[in-house]
Amino acid sequence: MQLSRLFAAVAAASLLSVQAAPLSAQSLGDRLKRKVQERVDRKTDEGMDKALDKAEETVKCAATDSACIAKAKAEGKKVETTGAKGAAAAGANANANATEDGSSDVNALKPGTGAWANYDFKPGERILFFDDFTKDEVGDFPRRMEFQSGSLELVDWQGGRWLRASSDSKWYVPLPEVRPDRFTMEFDYYIPSGEVWIYFGEKEERQVDFGGHGHAALSNRANKVQAQYTESGGESKIRRGRIMVDGKYAKVYLDEKRVLNVPNADLERTNKILFYTDGDDANPSLFGNFRLAAGGKKLYDVLAETGRVATQGIYFDTGSDRIRPESSPTLKEIAAMLTEHGDLSLTIEGHTDNVGSAATNKTLSEKRAAAVKAALVGSYGVEAGRLETAGFGSTKPAGSNDTPEGRQTNRRVELVRR
Questions:
Q1: pTM of the shown model
Q2: Are strands 272-277 and 195-199 parallel, antiparallel or unpaired?
Q3: Residues 401, 334: contact at Cβ < 8 Å?
Q4: DSSP assignment letter at 374
Q5: Spatial CB neighbours of 35, under 8 Å, sequence gap ≥ 6
Q6: Euclidean distance between CA atoms 366 and 361, whole angstroms
Q7: Which of 402, 182, 163 is CA-nearest to residue 290?
Q8: Euclidean distance between CA atoms 283 and 45, whole angstroms
Q9: Torsion region of 289: left, alpha or beta (phi above 0 gives left; psi -120 to 50 gives alpha)
Q10: Is 195 helix (H, G, I), strand (E, B) or coil?
Q11: Which of 97, 139, 281, 321 would suit a FRET pair with 149, their CA atoms being 20 to 30 Å apart?
Q12: 162-205: per-residue pLDDT in tens?
């Protein structure tokens, strides 16, 4: 707008120089034109300087291009990673980190529909470890994990932050205690070539592994147990792997499907879990959104004891009240509980962490509680009069908002007997 007014002034000055007194008008017009040109030149130079400074400081590299990233770092430049080679084949899953949990290819589905109708994974309620790497620097190894070997660093890719392995690599996920008897683990992965092996125990004889093209296996060489699954026509894409353990029993999931069901898996209990993955410069593996949690009692048992129970099993899109289909098992359990106990009425409470404004969090928590009620009434046949809703935002934290685990604990739905 300013340049438009200046050019209009030049035009007016030029017209004046033709029509008005020759000497004085021409002098005025010349001065105006010189001033305009000086200002245009100065603005152009400033814009070019900023663009050049930014270009000199930042280098764009594909997430798979280790040579480009290494060169930029050696020159002291900032690295901006872009989509990995072949990432187009990752399909609709390609923005898994854009949600609070799970991958984004299921956005069109609702709880209890399609493959999710038979899905039975319920996450543990007490968060032992959670990390989406948002507090770490690109190019670093995650501070909250333990490096073992290989080439591992964080990159920005497809809207989220990922741990990239550009060679065969090992790392530990530490736990604050020995893994409990009931336990769940979830993480996102993209493995274009090869697998990731997850070892339970120092002897590395009890393991679960996931392959990038739709493969999963569980083995325990101590008692000669082995089970495996391979997806027919599986493609390399971003997936979510899940493991649910109850004593010796273990179930393994690929995305929305339970693929292994091993009653005598007997995975060892230690205070850290080893990840070992394939990877190379041309085909690095990527990992993100780790969540490990201790399993708990059935919802009704806790509700009967204390009058309230919190659940981590109802998933929402980030910043939204849209319930994700992974919530099916928990919604089914709540509906069954109400069916079995006809005198039971509940208040559904929504809670958030403290990220964002208090007003926004309160509104979001209210909408999420209402969405849970709507799902129970509309999809599971619960009588509306037995359910009330309330949203408290971040005003009633269940954990510390200073840690990732605490913030994850605070993002919850609670059921209160009334």
A1: 0.75
A2: antiparallel
A3: no
A4: H
A5: none
A6: 9
A7: 163
A8: 42
A9: left
A10: strand
A11: 97
A12: 999 999 999 999 999 999 999 999 999 999 989 999 999 888 89
